[in-house]
Amino acid sequence: MANDSKTWRCGKYELSFDRPRIMGVLNVTPDSFSDGGEHFDPDAAIEYGLAMLDAGADIIDVGGESTRPGFTPVNPDEEARRVLPVVRALAKEGAIVSIDTRHVAVAKAAVRCGASIVNDVTGFTDPKMVEFVKTSTCGVIVMHAGEVAAPARTHATVQLDTSAAAFVAEKAREAAAEAAREAEKPARRRRGKLLGDPKPEAKLPGGVVQPSLPFGESEPAPESEPETPAAEQTAPAAAAPETVPAATEAAPEPSDHLAAMMRRSARREEAYVPTSQLRRFTLPDSAPIMRRVMGFLSDQARALIHAGVSRDRICIDPGPGFGKSANEDIVIERETAKMASLGYPLMCAVSRKRFVGAVSGVTEAAERDAATFGVCLGAIQAGANIVRVHDAAGFAQFLNGYWAVAKPQPRRAFVAVGSNLGHRCDNIRAARDMIAEIPLTCVSNSSKIYESEPAYETRQDAFANAVIEIKTELAPLVLLDELMKIEAELGRDRSKKAKANGPRTIDLDLLWMDGETHGGKKLRLPHPLIGERDFVLVPLEDLMHDPARFFRYNGVEVKEPEDRVGHIVGELGRM
Prior knowledge:
Low-confidence stretches: 154-158, 190-199, 217-254, 272-276
Number of helices: 16
Strand order of the largest sheet: 12-7-6-5-4-3-14-13
Helix content: 25-40%
Number of strands: 20
Radius of gyration: 30 Å
Strand content: 15-25%
Distance between the termini: 38 Å
């Protein structure tokens, strides 16, 4: 929602939510459910990640293991080999990078390479992952992955017999069954604990209890099978193999707990057939579903806080599609406002999921983007702060159009203006007047015009420089496009043959915008060179008190005056 007071600290970045943030999906995998193999090559993945940033994505979520239904687990070494070059390259371009992994070794390596967020689909149920994130400053995404409703029970038809003989016989059967249960009790004990007792929960430092993974209860093994020795047991949350009819060929159940849960989910979807029983409501009751989802998310968030992770680093995600039916996913999305009320930044990660196809009638996952946008819009209106989408460019256009009409939101920004060809001061004044004509934008203040030494390329004429303060309701990349149009109209040559820092009739740089951090080739916010440019910092002193302090507070390194480039040498007058 507009003017949401939540903030999310992710390493050196701080995201505000006066506007929803877009997380672009970048799967460096050969088998993801909607785009598997398209970006498996690291160079292709890097190029696509930068393209998403230039199209409007705020965060890039890099994943090296598909978690689609029926996925094959990937070992951490192979996952790291896939993702680390991509994470490193995107972080170098100023991107806020999220690493989508459940392996602590991959998370550690990615954060060292520049990732600012750890997105754990198992919800930080691994104490080693908790131990790692508590010692870092990265943002964390707690996701719920697991079944949210108990399996349906089948009931046999009962024929009542009210005769006295039947009553006496039933009492005799109950007494015999009770005696048999009493006789079995000693045999059922193993190592001092009854079979079926809850498994011990892991404890984090400080005595905090770490809950089990939020997956459904494992199906019991047949009684004839011997108990698995403790040394051979898999992870505590791993599900036991499901029983399959003898006539049916089935792949062995994976030992990986997440893979097992997703395979069960896929089989439930495939095996579903309508029953003859009538349902009185179109959707299941939301209360038990939301108790399980919200209970897990809030419990895990509190466990992280108790372990030492600050609250403003935590984001939550209900995990649509992970062990949930289409009906359950719709119930969860309709309860977005309740999840937002927990007080953490909330993610809507529904892009191209099966339930989106179910409600839209679109079979092919890659063709579900329009339906995805509709679901995301509903979630945003109910309080979601971040949307995780495959089509970042399309959603950025969708969001910009909606936001311009639905959410009036003027924000402060600064634009640097420079010229050293033709009538320099007239060029600057013309640019100011044209900026005032940009849609949803006004000029609120202007500095004086100063003369400065040329920077970077010193063998050219001196520059005239100024800074213009504006208010705008446009997204940063949309505003930048408008500034580039003004440059072209005033004769700026941005072709490859022109020197990057050579003579120009006009130069417009978007320096800073309230609440915006951005990376990529097209735009960096705050401007990465603002702290070393005397011809920018001096004019800014006309518009704010102590700009050096202001930008240092916003994470920009500001050099001392003697160490800067393009020093101011005089004044040329007012705008």
